[in-house]
Design brief:
This protein is α+β, with helices and mostly antiparallel strands. The chain is built from 3 helices and 6 strands; from the N terminus they run ααββββββα. The chain has one domain: Aspartate Aminotransferase, domain 1.
Length: about 150
Amino acid sequence: MCQPGLTVEGFLEASPDFVGPVFQRVHDHLVTVDRQHDDGELIVDPLSGKVLFKNGPTFCIVDVKKKWVAVGFVLRRRLDPSRLSRKVVDSGNKFFHVVNVDDVAMIDEEFEEWLTEAYFHVDEPVESVSGGDPMVPDDVDIVIAPPP
């Protein structure tokens, strides 16, 4: 079931004070990248406790935690810096990375480069999960469970 969407203002009002500066830094950077891209279609989708950034499929998530903001993003390569907060999760040729941000200064030039790379995920051809079926979205995670 889908959660009802919020406005950015509603998301920020319902979030702890430390969330606003982190969200704003990520948001402002991605808006700047989007404006520089002729075909940019950045969608900012605030939900309860998180914001999804989409340009086609979701490529970045700002997820509110108790003491930090978990900023997750998808790249076509695996990063291996010590800044990552969780094990990198791979799914075929996509790698999901998370950095727990407790200070907006952590979003430096290197971090912004990762966000920019995540934004341009559509520039690299990827084999579609849907096999080209327009009724099946490409950003759906399919889990095949073993028989009981």
